[in-house]
Amino acid sequence: MNASLSNIEAQFAIAMAGYDLAPPDIVADGLRHRFDAPDDKKGKKSAWYILHSDGVPAGAFGNWKTDLSEKWCGKSDQVLTPAERAEYRARIDKARQDAEFTRLQLEGEAAAVCVRILAGARDATDDNPYCVRKSIKPYGLKEFKDKRTLIVPIRDATGAITSVQFIYEDGSKLLKSNGKVKGCYYSFGGKPADTLLVCEGFATGASLYAVTGYPVAVAFNAGNLEAVAKVLRGKLPGIRIIVCADDDRFKESSNTGLIKAKAAAAAVGGLLAVPVFQSDDGQPTDFNDLHAREGSQAVMAAISAATPQDGSHAAPVALAAPAAGPVTSLTNDRSMIPATDTRTVKIRCATDIKPLPITWLWPGWVPAGKLTILAGAAGTGKTTLALGLASVLTAGGTWPDGSACKRKGNVLVWSSEDVADDTLVPRLIASGADLSRCHFIEGITENGESVPFDPAQDIPELHRAVAAIGGVSLLLIDPIVSAVAGDMHRANDVRRSLQAVVDFAEAHQCAVIGITHFAKGGAGKAPQDRVIGSQAFGALARMVLVTAKEEDGARRVLARAKSNIAPDDGGVSYSLGMKTINGGIEATHAVWEGTIDGTAREILGEVEHDESDGGDGGQRDDLERMLIDTLTDAGGRMATKALQAEIRDAGHSWDAAKRIKKSLGIEAVKASMGGAWMWCLPGAIPRREHEGSEGSTEKTALPSLPSAPPSQKVASNVIPISSVEVTICPPQTCWRNVKRLA
């Protein structure tokens, strides 16, 4: 006997109650309904259900926050007919698909809002009320200007923003509605070298980092510890993971913090660290409480006592003594990494990989989280140009192509060629930079002494320094060859050294611009191949930008020579201006003058003179032969624009072609009154007076040539052209028919 509608709803309600879900009402209309889950803030509506009453009574329900998804049927599977079973399964599949689609849609909308929130917020400072109350530093967080509410970014394994956590002055916390948190985290302290700490809250993580110096990942709640630990284990298979528990021993129900932390540590072959208190007065639970009450030594002792949760008996964790700030040297003890008897290849199916867009600092030109090479000849103002880009980023100005900088960021500069106080800072001021966002690497402290910073080996220490200044969006290394330990002409040395730079960029989602020079004698080559040193510089970079300068002018050009992730053509014209700043100091700055079309080879060819023009004549000979042969194949004349395209496609400079045109006897004339300009071999020009020249205002009309094939018009004619004798032959004629006279 079919159950009544009220009975269907009642049975469905009982099924949901078994999972602590209680919607305010149940409507069996086949539509999705959302309601607040038990631990939701009012109005968040993480729970959902769909119930059908027609046909086979069936439904589904779940909780996006806990990944719960259950099905329900008003009939037992044993009594369903094959048709009813198929109908039931189809309804359940559709209900789940609809719910999943809605969840993903809401998560995407929430993520977009969070990105805008972070872009509009300012960097949090040490005097933030919550930070002061917790005795911590903000370590890269943002805050609202008015209420000083802290904003903690939440990212997935790829670094994409999924949500944010708001922390108010009184310590209350709120997550962005519908933002994804499961398996997502906030990390700081750089890329782990050997050990990573995973904990629940930011204040706990800030205390742990301040004492140990180990990188930290914040999971935001106990239920997310295992998911975050698994994600990080997948990214960092050889790293020791220590899960730092909140000891919720004062809760009446269960010690959720400790239970979930143990499960997380066991799931990844990690270790469990638990805070140990001398007194329970005030009911302390986490490592921030321990740090505030009993100091750094107590925190170090608890981390050192971390134990494995897989049943093994490993030695205690070895840590260095605590310091006044984050520890900069820790014992690299890998005894706690679970031993394995076999090595296995990790394979990941494409269906498990979420496609992600490239993130950009300067859209289409400078990617975030990746290495960009900026190369050019001396005198093109590469450093000044790079500082101009840094100024746009810090002040939120306009990029050279006219697009707006959508978010401000910090800039870090390491230069071994220019001094900050009398060269770089004046140029930044002249470029309109926000100096509060500009930072310079001046050295490194080693055993109490100051020594020069060496990018080839000091990048790991840079991770901690960057976290201390609140993160960085752009790192300038001038020159990039200084980051190479070994021979810059050896690919293995370059790749091995620059990998640390690439890892730094990825870890901080920071754009890195490495400045370098062109090798001598490279004009005419592919622009990417002109970068000095090993070709590994250009191969490892995702973007290669090149610069050039007019020999007799002030105009300079910037072009994309290589890009794996964006268009690889187009350029920007710029010049170097001079500006008087504070105290009468004169400083140069880049002046953007608009975009340019064309490939990098074409753009550089427009402003550079071929080295062969005044050298051995090799490229000039090639260009002469190509001009004559191309015009011959076209019947002695060709439209200027078409010929220009042919010349550029062959890798030659159009300016060089124009310089040798006269010496070959080639003339530019108009095909008709008001028509297009054409280049003609002497034999293709009628013997009459014509005064016009390409680019002049005088118009000289050239009668149309006969329509006969080129071979019939000019075959076997010998035309004297300067010192070159040319036999005009059909298109198939070989270059060997062009002879240079003695």
Would you mind describing this structure in some detail?
The protein is α+β, with helices and mostly antiparallel strands and 742 residues long. It is built from 18 helices and 34 strands. The strands form eight sheets. Strands 20-19-23-24-18-25-26-27-28 form a nine-stranded mixed beta sheet. It has a six-stranded mixed beta sheet with strand order 10-12-11-13-14-15, with helices on both faces. Helix 4 packs across helix 7. The longest helix is centred in the first third of the chain and has 39 residues, at 82-120. The radius of gyration is 34 Å and the shape is globular. The chain starts with a helix and ends with a strand.
Contiguous helical run count: 18
Low-confidence stretches at least 5 residues in length (pLDDT < 50)? Answer: 1-5, 311-316, 320-342, 611-616, 686-693, 695-742
Strand order of the largest sheet: 20-19-23-24-18-25-26-27-28
The CATH topology of the largest domain corresponds to Dna Topoisomerase Vi A Subunit, Chain: A, domain 2
What is the tally of beta strands?
Answer: 34
What number of domains? 4
Radius of gyration: 34 Å
CATH architecture of the largest domain: 3-Layer(aba) Sandwich
Overall average pLDDT = 79
- End-to-end distance: 112 Å
Keywords:
disordered C terminus; alpha+beta; single chain; Rossmann fold; 4 domains; 9-stranded mixed β-sheet; 742 residues; disordered N terminus; globular; Dna Topoisomerase Vi A Subunit, Chain: A, domain 2; 6-stranded mixed β-sheet; 18 helices; 34 strands
